[in-house]
Amino acid sequence: MALKIYNSLTRQKEVFEPINAPYVGMYVCGPTVSGESHLGHARPFITFDVLYRYLLHLGYKVRYVRNITDAGHFEEEGKVAEDKITSKAILEKLEPMELVQKYTHLYHWAMDQFNNLPPSIEPTATGHIIEQIEMIKKIMTDGFAYEANGSVYFDVIKYNEVYSKKNQPYGILSGRNLEDQLDTTRELDNQDEKKNKVDFALWKKAPVEHIMRWQSPWGEGFPGWHIECSAMATKYLGKKFDIHGGGMDLQFPHHECEIAQSTVCNHELPARYWVHNNMITINGRKMGKSYNNVVKLSELFDGSHPILTQAYSPMTVRFFILQSQYRGTLDFSNEALQASEKALRRLMDAYEWLKAQSFTSEKKSTDASLDQQLKTWVNELPEFMEDDLNTAKVVANLFEMVPVINSLKDKHITAEAVSGATWQLVQAQLTLFIEQVLGIKVESGVNKKQLNGVIHLLIDIRKEAKAKKDFATSDKIRNQLLEMGIQIKDEKDGEVSFTFS
Amino acid sequence: MALKIYNSLTRQKEVFEPINAPYVGMYVCGPTVSGESHLGHARPFITFDVLYRYLLHLGYKVRYVRNITDAGHFEEEGKVAEDKITSKAILEKLEPMELVQKYTHLYHWAMDQFNNLPPSIEPTATGHIIEQIEMIKKIMTDGFAYEANGSVYFDVIKYNEVYSKKNQPYGILSGRNLEDQLDTTRELDNQDEKKNKVDFALWKKAPVEHIMRWQSPWGEGFPGWHIECSAMATKYLGKKFDIHGGGMDLQFPHHECEIAQSTVCNHELPARYWVHNNMITINGRKMGKSYNNVVKLSELFDGSHPILTQAYSPMTVRFFILQSQYRGTLDFSNEALQASEKALRRLMDAYEWLKAQSFTSEKKSTDASLDQQLKTWVNELPEFMEDDLNTAKVVANLFEMVPVINSLKDKHITAEAVSGATWQLVQAQLTLFIEQVLGIKVESGVNKKQLNGVIHLLIDIRKEAKAKKDFATSDKIRNQLLEMGIQIKDEKDGEVSFTFS
Fold this sequence. Notes:
2 copies of one chain form a homodimer. The first copy, chain A, is α/β, with parallel strands linked by helices. Chain A folds into 3 domains: 17-277, 3-Layer(aba) Sandwich (Rossmann fold), CATH 3.40.50.620; 282-437, Isoleucyl-tRNA Synthetase, Domain 1 (Orthogonal Bundle), CATH 1.10.730; 448-500, no CATH class. Chain A has helices at 39-57, 80-83, 96-113, 129-141, 156-164, 178-184, 225-237, 251-266, 297-302, 314-322, 334-355, 368-386, 391-409, 420-437, 448-467, 471-483; strands spanning 4-7, 12-15, 23-28, 61-66, 145-148, 151-154, 200-205, 221-223, 241-247, 271-277, 280-282, 330-332, 486-489, 497-500. In chain A, the strands form 5 sheets. In chain A, strands 4-3-9-10 form a 4-stranded parallel β-sheet, sandwiched between helices. In chain A, helix 10 (314-322) crosses helix 11 (334-355). The radius of gyration of chain A is 29 Å and the shape is globular.
């Protein structure tokens, strides 16, 4: 067995071979923190979390870098106009870093809710301005970028001419032909500054009202969007690293531009495997402001978006996403989420029950075919993961096992049907694949209201027992509650309260 | 009433007057994320969180900036030697930003546990290298810094000469006399580079093995510690802002150096009010590695440090710290924490009970003196806060009210003793001061184990009831549990389980 992963660059599944095993370098494009994370962000971050988890499970030492884009033009609805009055005192002005802080905080909260492991490094664009400037200088020195009016542009035509001869034309990843792009690209702002409309900005001159600005050899400005990923990936993972990931919408132009920038600077393609997850649609439509179907993660978790009839737990959303293989399309709807919620509960009920059972490894099986079937199902789990992270098939096999577990629980079969060793294998592999690999957390669902309700019921029963002179029962309740650190107080006149210790 | 705050700069309590009300700019020195946060970090961050909360309560629009020091020399135990082998591939080398990520994550987790509000901006030193370089250039241009062998030093003697004439000598904040310092300062590394041993580094040349390094006009290096706070405070709060906070140990040299740097660049003292919390001692001793008494916050929360006999909740620690006024010394011990835990539970039990009661505002009081006493206690709460954040007195008054609340709860007094309006006032002010101002969160303390235990006890009682043919009781238990979404299953042969819906 070996992990096979679909490489967008070669358009085929390939065996994953790290450049320098056991080390693996993985770069994933992170969010722009100018707004709250939405459902569209959930899929890439969960997909690459599962890839990260699986690589760790395989024993690789992974450096997982996921950036935070905090440079550029930031605005919060209704606040931009205000900000442009430059005569105001500094404290009265909109400070983009306040928005960065607010949305970074919300983003981290959401990632934590999803049980995504923190990446090894989360570099920010504003934290790497110098590195970006250095990279731009290098690209200019090599003749692939030019300054125009305080901005710097990448010369795509020249790059394509030179690198086409090396079999690495501009468009190598997305398969887009530069001639077609030249024919179809619409006119852009500032395009008169550019030699060609396909050129992209490496550095932008900051207009007077632009707050985020840094000193550079070309005057005050800010970096273009693409250069940050090239600079930070090179800094933390080296000139050539193993995996570059992101949503399919980033293939062009973002990843194409990254390839061009890094290739000029480092003289090779930056990453070996380019991995892209497919998009999420909402009730069959593209997600977009005009459709009013952009569901923020907080709205998903509290059910406040109009297309939802209820709140969905982060684990339900995670499970919903992992029920499909990451390269397939995924249509989101309230109904689909409800189905996932129900399915997840069914799976976790069976799993948690089985996990609590004890099996003796010496016990032989009385139903060899069932025994073998269970072994097959669990042994297929790594095979599915290693076939381009087919979490859909992993989930399907988990559900094959649920009725067997429930039969054991309901005593329709006895534990002896299956050997103790096989039960132990099933337990161990379920824990590994559900909790470690898929990252599904057992949700407690316990709340204080429930505990209060149950305790008050006990106190009530105890009063009745005392009334019936059943002191054995009333003492038992008092003593056992005390053992749990729950003390009944104030019983004298019918009002009862209790405290936890 | 007006907020009075002790200003370390003038060595007296002063009425707080913002430079540009309603805006308030506050800068607090944050942690160096080269290790896990410990008890010593808890006090400043909780102190300034309470100040932030109180300023917000007073209606100010506060921009609260708390930095993260992530530049400098980073090491993790046992990892540094390995890192120095520079021939290794980039992924095999220690990457300081991995440690930064790890410890920043832990730090944010701890701040969240303490219920500290996130600051408005959390700028990082590595995110502001350009701003620091620009500031150093300015200081050099003005003649208060000099380059030596790729490093840049601040000329303290010259600064003192020039600014003593303007009544702002070096040492103005800490009261230290420069001549005394010249006599007593011990010889330092690289001191031969420096003109005088009191000079401090603005920029340090990076030795070959130093990983964190940036291009600068003086070659590759990294910023000195003090310059980051000057650069970031100026950027986000302006040349002169309202409050600069930190632990008392930062007065000298850190804040003194900040004052010198910012004054040279901006021609005025950077902050109007300098606020310093006192230190925490542990069992009467200074905290330090040599005493083996550095308690990490995670060790505090799980009770794993040898000086602790149990785990303490973040709210217990917060409450313990707020039981003293921030400028007093505070001795930490296991016993003191136990006492705080008990006291907090007593307070919160009374508070939560009172909060759940309903009072009608029309009801008159039958005990005018008690009514007046309660009003006095709550009216004193803002007075104490406004007297230099005297949380110790706030807590004391809260405890004055606990026996009154408990008397009402225990029916030793009737609700009519006090007017409905006063009870409502007490309810509102307790919520304001306990939850909003002191930031004490109601802790649920509910866990699945407790709930399981209680339910199993009920199931047990139900079985006994059935054995005694007491079907009224057994049905009552089943039905009421069902109403709470708890279903008893598999009762047939003595094994009982249940599920939550």
